[in-house]
Amino acid sequence: YHGPISVFPWGVDLAHFNPTAPVVLREQLGWQKEFVFLSNRTLEPLYGVDVTAWAFIQACQNNDHLRLLLYGKGSQEGKIRALFEKAGLMDRVHFGGFASLEQLPGIYASADVYLSASHSDGSSVSLMEALACARPVIVSDIPSNQEWVKPGEQGWIFKDGNSADLAAKMLTAASSECLAEMAKNNRSLAQQKADWQKNFAKLLAAYEEAVTLVRK
User: Fold this and answer.
1) 3-class DSSP state of 71
2) Which pLDDT does position 1 carry in this prediction?
3) What percent of the chain has a predicted confidence (pLDDT) above 90?
4) How big is the chain by its Cα radius of gyration, in Å?
5) Of the given ranges (7-21, 53-67, 76-90), which has the lowest mean pLDDT?
6) Alpha-carbon distances of 137 from 37, 73, 86, 157, rounded to whole Å
7) What is the pLDDT of residues 161-202, one digit of tens each?
8) Lateral strand order in the sheet of 35-39
9) What spatial distance separates the first Cα and last Cα of the chain, rounded to whole Å?
10) Surface-to-core class of residue 8, CB atoms within 10 Å of its CB (0-12 exposed, 13-18 middle, 19+ buried)
11) Taking all residues of the chain, what is their mean pLDDT, rounded to a whole number?
12) Is the dihedral of CA 126, 128, 130, 132 positive or negative?
């Protein structure tokens, strides 16, 4: 193929997903003084939430102040609950189920760091939402995540499927003094690359160009 190629990411509503949402959930859980991670990936094998669970269990052995917001549903929910029950950590994990579009900004705001252990993905919408909400991130080293996350700028990258590496990154994040800088970087990145209004305009222009080429 020798014709023009247009590349564009999906995008999110930057007015809705922003850093100013109220931190109500964190207060409701009594976690104001704890370090809170968020995973809101579907509880299916593809998204590696079981890896997140194992990593959280390992990290908690070295830090009593870690907490986990776990949103989503799926076939692995029973398995993941059982892992936390066996480890005696159910009081440190909040299973939130499905979150509505209206609830999501407040959920992101209640976390210190966003997690994704997905084994495969395109440009993840939840990652873009986290960036737009100015959350530092820890993500697996799959190619699509590396297009968005540079270690030390947006957060941390761990070896896909390696719960020990993820646990180490979680402990590093919990003691990091760079979170505020990362938060600013991530909101700026979202404004540059994940603005749905701008990206939709690119998509529309590409579509119109394709229609013109076909009609020639």
Assistant:
1) strand
2) 46
3) 82
4) 18
5) 7-21
6) 9, 21, 27, 8
7) 999 999 999 999 999 999 999 999 999 999 999 986 775 556
8) 93-97, 66-71, 35-39, 113-116, 137-140, 155-158
9) 17
10) middle
11) 91
12) negative
What would the two tokens of residue 160 be? 């896909």
Spatial separation of the C-alpha atoms in residues 44 and 189, rounded to whole Å: 29
Q: Which residue has the higher pLDDT, 212 or 31?
A: 31
E-state strands within the chain: 35-39, 66-71, 93-97, 113-116, 137-140, 155-158
CB burial of 107-143 (b: ≥16 within 10 Å; e: otherwise) equals bbbbbbbbbbbbeebebbbbbbbbbbbbbbbbbbebe
How far apart, in whole angstroms, are the C-alpha atoms of residue 133 and residue 107?
Answer: 10
How far apart are alpha carbons 88 and 190 in whole angstroms?
38
pLDDT of residue 122: 82
Tell me the C-alpha distance between 196 and 61, whole Å. 41
What value does the mean pLDDT take over residues 3-16? 74
pTM: 0.89
Residue in 101, 102, 47 with CA at minimum distance from that of residue 70: 47
Quickly state the pLDDT bin for 57 (edges 50, 70, 90): very high
Distances (CA, A) of 114 to 8, 85, 197, 216: 24, 23, 24, 48
Are 24 and 106 in contact by the 8 Å Cβ rule? The answer is: yes
Residue-level pLDDT at 198: 74
Distance CA(46)–CA(204), nearest Å, equals 31
Contact 37, 60 (CB under 8 A): no
